[in-house]
Amino acid sequence: MNVRIRGIYTTALTRRFLDADHRVVDASPPIRERFDAALSTGPADIDIETSDDRQGVRVGGDPDAVPTAVDRLTTVARDAFAWPSPAPEGALFDARVTETLGRGAVCDLGDGDGFLPYDNVDTHVEVGDRVRVRVAASMPPWANRRPVLDTDIEMRAGPATLVHGGSGVTVDTRDDAAGRELAGMTDLLGVDVPDGWGLRWTETATDADMDTLAAALERAVDEVADIEVTLDEPVEPTRRLAAPTATTWVWFGRESRFALDEDRRRVTETMTGHHRIKAASSEASRAVDFAEALQAGSSEFPFEAVTETFGPDVGDHVRLDHGKPDGRRIVLGRAEVIDRGADGTLTVRREMTAGGTYDALPVDREDGDVAITKLREGRWWYPTVYRDEDGERKGTYVNVCTPVECFPDAVRYVDLHVDVVKGPSGEVRRVDDDELDAAVDVGYVSPALAEKARAIASSLENAV
User: Which of 188, 270, 409, 458 gives 264 a disulfide partner, CB atoms 3.0 to 4.6 angstroms apart?
Assistant: First the structure.
């Protein structure tokens, strides 16, 4: 079976499921790096996610596959427990409102209660009302919280979800091209979507083969066929209408966590009590990652470990603190981190405002322009490429500076005046040597530092 795993137990559980000849799919970048070719692509039969309190995991997916996955987890150690949920995610119920609270209503599902937020229902509800609901989020039994309900009716089968009252085909992916391709291919599967239902594919569907997609859509259509007549009937609480997926919660005790340490240690650097510490809090979890990264690192500065723990991460914003040799600091603006490389490189993006021209470049600053800057920890220079709203390059400015430092909230350095620019037509020029000379004359820059700056500028002239 295909298993997708997320959370603090991911490395250890990936090792266990691979050892049992199952396929781990949709792996995160760190897991892909640790396991390399052992991982697969495609939609998951089983999703395993760490509970919010880190005490265990939720196992959800194909009802025929969930028991097999749970067996792999409960054999970790003798203090691992499993509890099937009476309200699995995706299940449909006819329910009765038994209590109204400040933010939602408590609903009797038959085998237990659920919580229906007012934001998840289109009409006003009162005690005694009958409602048809879907379990949007299951809750672990040890959390003493009710499952979260929604009145939107959906039927999910692997990567395919049929949405009642919807139409057409949508794809949950950031890759617009892959999404359009999958939406266009759906007609070729030979499976008709029922009238009055829309189809939504998950992102993993873009990597699946046609047979897998057809099988998933067929299963979703079958689930709809089983309940479609019932949906036209009046709500008759309390009853369960359908459960296309199963949910089981697995709790790990102390022995289990230390056993999972051993599984993880077979893959990567793992300190004693790794999972025991991580289960405590998010701060403890980050501290463990940091300590292990330091243990596994060389004598070089552990940039990846520091930024992984403290930031910045993709999506964060950082200031560009442009220091001057005379002691001033000029903030070039705030930039969004759009990529972070293991070599210590941050790629950041700024949206530019119109007005004037770019420094040393004979091109206007216009609305829609963006600046893409690559900053590598410890490097004596960094390039910025300016592009217009159509993505066309308007010029490149390479700044020579003291070694760059990438802090969680800011990138810092001291500008050394001399720079190299490349215009829109490809011409390369070296600029501001005179400003560097003046800084040396007044004692702001030492002769040795100026020599270093000039040597770097000369190398950049040839490279750019």
Answer: 270
DSSP string, 290-319: HHHHHHHS-SS--HHHHHHHH---TT-EEE
Q: Which helix (H) or strand (E) element contains residue 438?
A: helix 433-441
- Structural domain harbouring 390: 317-463
What CATH number has the domain bearing residue 432? Answer: 2.40.380.10
Which has the closest alpha carbon to 84: 251, 250, 248?
248
* Whether residue 451 sits in one domain with residue 331: yes
Cis, bond preceding 447 (omega within 30 deg of 0)? no
Question: Rounded to an integer, what is the distance from CA 317 to the centroid of its chain?
Answer: 17
pTM for the model:
0.66
Residue closest to 152 by CA, chosen among 133, 170, 168, 166? 133
- In tens, the pLDDT along 212-243 reads 889 889 988 988 888 888 888 889 889 999 89
Return d(Cα 246, Cα 46) in angstroms, integer.
10
3-state SS, one letter per residue, for 365-416: CCCCCEEEEEEECCCCEEEEEEECCCCCEEEEEEEEECCCEECCCEEEEEEE
- What are 105-158's pLDDT values in tens digits? 999 999 899 999 999 999 999 999 999 999 999 999 988 899 999 999 998 888
Report helix, strand or coil for 449.
helix
Q: Which two tokens stand for residue 385?
A: 């490429």
Instruction: Sheet with 56-61: list strands edge to edge.
Output: 23-24, 2-6, 46-50, 56-61, 246-252, 80-84
d(CA 399, CA 393): 17
d(CA 236, CA 274): 49
The conformational region for residue 372 under phi > 0 = left, psi -120 to 50 = alpha, else beta, is beta
Same domain (yes/no): 395, 296: no
Contacts of 319 (CB under 8 A, 6+ apart): 331, 333, 334, 409, 410, 411
214 and 347: one domain? Answer: no
* Buried-exposed string 175-184: b where 16+ CB fall within 10 A, e elsewhere: eeeebeebee
Q: Is residue 22 part of a domain?
A: yes
Which helix (H) or strand (E) covers residue 108, if one does?
A: strand 104-108
Per the structure, the count of domains in the chain is 5
Residue 318, token pair as written in the block:
């950082």
Start-to-end C-alpha separation, the chain: 50
